């Protein structure tokens, strides 16, 4: 074989060279290709905006649900009143029918044969005829009485029928609204978990805010109020002050709720008199927690058993456990 046609030993063949070039080109393209944009996790503020949006959906549903429950209670009361009127009429029909049962069988089922037998069994035709007339009149009177009762019952039934239909519709609507509210509340709960995850283990402002403030975000006016109060952490208590640089206890809660569009007096006891009472189990961030029998202190609930408050002169606004004080009651501005 001619030596010029033999491949040189130790050198790669042409197919290997082509494969190597293709591989190098692919690596080069991969290196030059722009990196896929990284998706940053949402910040607490961004999640709070989502919660606000969900709350704006939830609050109208809650109000509609409350209005439906009020209507349903009223209509059920009307239906109960009509049922109370129908009950004696139904009983009257039953009693009257029972009393004339035997008589109806004799006079109207037995017919002429029963009358003839009765006539033949009597020795006095005039007396028998009189008896038959009396029985016939009694039957007629009782039939008329039943007819009157049935007419009255029918009239009440006609009034009650649309009422029953309305009660049924309101009951269905109430259930649908409750289901919608529950679904939105579940979404808010999930968003609140994301919010806490976004905060991670941050402690806010050290010992003044050992946990995120608020610890959960309810949405709505309460959320706006508690966010305002939380932003004041670190500012110094000054008696009689209501912001923007210093606050006393009721000045802080007044200013916070003013930021949410609700007016409150600058006095803890007066605030207690103006706000709606809520139970401990109903508390949500933004609610007010009142302390001591003379109501001389108020803080704002921040969730999970924490409040944010202005405690006393010279100290900064801070968070603390709600139960570190003699609680008087709880209230919700509106």
Describe the structure.
Helix content is 60%, strand content 8%. It is of the alpha+beta class and 334 residues long. The protein folds into two domains: 155 residues; 127 residues, endopeptidase domain like (from Nostoc punctiforme) (endopeptidase fold (from Nostoc punctiforme), Alpha-Beta Complex). A six-stranded antiparallel beta sheet has the order 1-6-2-3-4-5, with helices on one face. The radius of gyration is 42 Å and the shape is elongated.
Walk me through the topology.
Blueprint: H1 14-32, H2 44-99, H3 101-109, H4 111-120, H5 125-199, H6 220-231, H7 249-259, H8 268-274, E1 276-277, E2 288-291, E3 297-303, E4 306-309, E5 318-321, E6 327-332
Antiparallel strand pairs: 1-6, 2-3, 2-6, 3-4, 4-5
Helix pairs in contact: 2-5, 3-4, 4-5, 6-7
